[in-house]
Design a protein that fits this description.
alpha+beta, five-stranded mixed β-sheet, 6 helices, 5 strands, 24% strand, globular, disordered C terminus, binds flavin mononucleotide, BLUF domain-containing protein, FAD binding
């Protein structure tokens, strides 16, 4: 299996980001589960950060498709690693936006909306996602909801 982390620049106006993210989330959640791909997508208002993990050919094909998507540009792969264990096994796709509630978490990882795409590091993106996940798990999502959204293709392994 491989894990790829990338950053890109959103091409959608700020006011439309949430609608866009919801649309991407809805498609990705289903499609990624079908392909045994897990990961997350973060939108900070200007930049996207995404990690995708799963079989090498599946992740590569998905990245090719995402790269063509006009809703973002300047996709920059920050890291590609061979993995034995998934870092985000629980989600075929989970997305977070930078909101008033999560502002502090983004700031703690030095990922602000004025960041230069070239200075983003994969390790920071992964650490940010782990913190957002912990916050989500602890505060925002009751256990029953987490269990019910577990993708079937992955849950049956
Ligand atoms: C930043 C970003 C991340 C995306 N992530 C995924 C993803 O993880 N899985 C996925 O199926 N589509 C993802 N998409 C959407 C794809 O680009 C594409 O629109 C979608 O898979 C539908 O493909 P189709 O038009 O070939 O049916 C993403 C799009 C963007 C802009």
């Amino acid at each position: 299996m491989i894990q790829v982390v990338y950053a890109s620049r959103s091409a959608v106006p700020l006011g439309d980001q949430l609608t866009m993210l919801s649309a991407i989330q809805a498609v990705s959640y289903r499609r990624n589960a079908e392909r045994s791909i897990t990961g997350f997508l973060i939108n900070d208002g200007q930049l996207f950060y995404q990690a995708l993990e799963g079989p090498g050919s599946g992740v590569a094909a998905l990245l090719d498709r995402i790269r063509q998507d006009p809703r973002h540009s300047d996709m920059r792969v920050l890291a590609e690693s061979s993995i034995q264990v998934r870092g985000f096994a629980e989600w075929s796709m989970v997305s977070w936006m930078r909101t008033a509630a999560t502002l502090g978490i983004f700031a703690r990882h030095g990922l602000s909306d004025r960041l230069d795409l070239r200075s983003v590091q994969a390790s920071r993106v992964l650490a940010l996602a782990r913190d957002l996940q912990a916050c989500e798990t602890a505060v925002r999502r009751p256990r029953s909801f987490r269990a019910s959204v577990k993708p079937r293709a992955l849950a049956t392994r």
